Amino acid sequence: MPACMIGIAAPQAMVTDGRVVMSDPDFEARRKAVQEYVKPDDPLSWDVAWKKGVTPWDDGIVEPSLMEVIEESGIPFPREGKALVPGCGAGYEAFWLAKRGLKATGMDISETAIEAANRERNKYPQEIIDNSQFLEVNFFDIKDISDEERYDLAIDHRQVFFVAIPPSLRNDWGRQMAAFVKPGGYLINIIFPIVPPVEGGPPYTVRPDHYDGPLGENFEKIYDEVPTKSSPTHEGKERVQVWRRK
């Protein structure tokens, strides 16, 4: 539906890293559609959005910016061990990591999302099936994580986790990531959408420095770049960070 028919204002500009980035009327329409079903005080409402088919974050691909940082940054990301993808949705990133040799675990609070991930899982060769699993769970509810349960790599991706939770939970997010990632392990943040500030969410306003407080005590930031490869809907609106667990 044209933007003018749904009451969306004309694009506005902002400056980030010396570049002018325009707000995206189509993105604003998608954001409003999500907010119709997802309520900040009810994490289980994410399942309502999945059931209604309002999942604009699910574009059916692994984000090119994630593949770029893992394959081209020169950072020695693990090729074996365990990987975690919280807010995994239909599991594309988990399958890609499993294909690279990692034991990948996807977590999502939505029953419908986990069902979608398991349907996708059944389409893959046995090696990928063996290297992937999906858990219907609230990331924040997992406690007393043992050393054996910790991960070599974790991914915070798209617009479905850090930017999807109320900002009041971001410090809790950082502490939980520290609990999940083993010393020397890596956390990759795909920071999106970097657009003009907005009221409320999800997704909530996000900037690269918003990660410094939640992660700075337990992680060291070793990479912070604008990707050269982005999906069409992410171009000019994302940044990639890598943090190493102390």
Please, could you describe this protein's structure?
This protein has 246 residues and is an alpha/beta fold. The chain has helices spanning 25-37, 45-52, 64-72, 92-99, 111-121, 126-130, 170-180, 212-216, and strands at 13-16, 19-22, 82-86, 103-108, 132-136, 151-156, 181-191, 219-225, 239-245. Mean pLDDT is 88; it is low at 1-23.
In summary, what is this structure?
By secondary structure, the protein is an alpha/beta fold. It has helices at residues 25-37, 45-52, 64-72, 92-99, 111-121, 126-130, 170-180, 212-216; strands spanning 13-16, 19-22, 82-86, 103-108, 132-136, 151-156, 181-191, 219-225, 239-245. A hairpin with a 2-residue loop joins strand 1 (13-16) and strand 2 (19-22).
List keywords for this structure.
7-stranded mixed sheet; 9 strands; TPMT; two-stranded antiparallel ribbon; disordered N terminus; S-adenosyl-L-methionine; 246 residues; SAM-dependent_MTases_sf; alpha/beta; Thiol methyltransferase 1; phosphoprotein
Structural class: alpha/beta
What integer value in Å does the Rg equal?
Answer: 17 Å
SSE arrangement, N to C: EEHHHEHEHHEEHEHEE
The chain-level mean pLDDT equals 88
Strand order of the largest sheet: 5-4-3-6-7-9-8
Task: Flag low-confidence runs.
Answer: 1-23
Q: What kind of assembly state do the chains in view correspond to?
A: single chain
Helix fraction bin: 25-40%
